[in-house]
Amino acid sequence: MNHIGENLGRVRSRIDGACAAAGRAADAVTLLAVSKTFDAAAVRAAAAAGQRAFGENYVQEALAKQAQLQDLDLAWHFIGPLQSNKTRAVAEHFDWVHSVDRLKIAERLSQQRPQALAPLQVCVQVNISGEHSKSGCATDEAAALCRAVAQLPRLRLRGLMAIPAPTAPGSDPRAPYRALRELFAGLSGLGLDTLSAGMSDDLEAAIAEGATMVRVGSALFGRRQVV
Ligand SMILES: *Cc1c(COP(=O)(O)O)cnc(C)c1O
Prior knowledge:
Layout: H1 3-21, E1 30-34, H2 40-48, E2 53-56, H3 59-68, E3 75-78, H4 87-93, E4 96-100, H5 103-112, E5 120-125, H6 142-149, E6 155-161, H7 175-185, E7 194-196, H8 203-208, E8 213-216, H9 218-221
Parallel strand pairs: 1-2, 1-8, 2-3, 3-4, 4-5, 5-6, 6-7
Pyridoxal-5'-phosphate binds near residues 36, 57, 163, 201 and 215.
């Protein structure tokens, strides 16, 4: 087995352990492998070890990788900040978008989603820690944005995504994920099923608070070079 295969095994056991600790079924949580900055060969190695869903942050980088991996049946999730001039490429080349944080972006994605493809699966990203510089809609705007996105014909709203600020030492790592879960619970009329939350360092805290999809990069592929 390649080292990515071994890392996948370790991450899957962490997910299983966290599900067991929370009294949740092991298949309640999907692993999204975040392959940004890693090349197509790394994705191919993960796919050989059974991983199907991959997350990417940068459109050009992702399209180049997808072109090299067309022989594989993979699901591609866009998880990075999304500008208007990139929505068409994302609408045409991804299965999911986790980072919808304003209506204008959602409307463009819906207009630009090709009819031949299934609806684009989307999550609304929430700035759950209220950081000034971060992407994500404000917590108190999330419900209205979700209701508007749910109306768009070529999108299917699946849930919420968040990237909490790092918690200070000694403070509860579950607190931001608990806030996200409460927000999610308040949207029950929309039929949502996805809470995209938790990364390499804190997936246990997120799963304890109901995450259904964890986005894991460095624990699978290794440390990223700073670009
Ligand atoms: C890079 C990234 C991840 C993965 O982070 P790791 O700490 O490497 O697991 C998850 N989600 C988003 C949105 C990212 O940009």
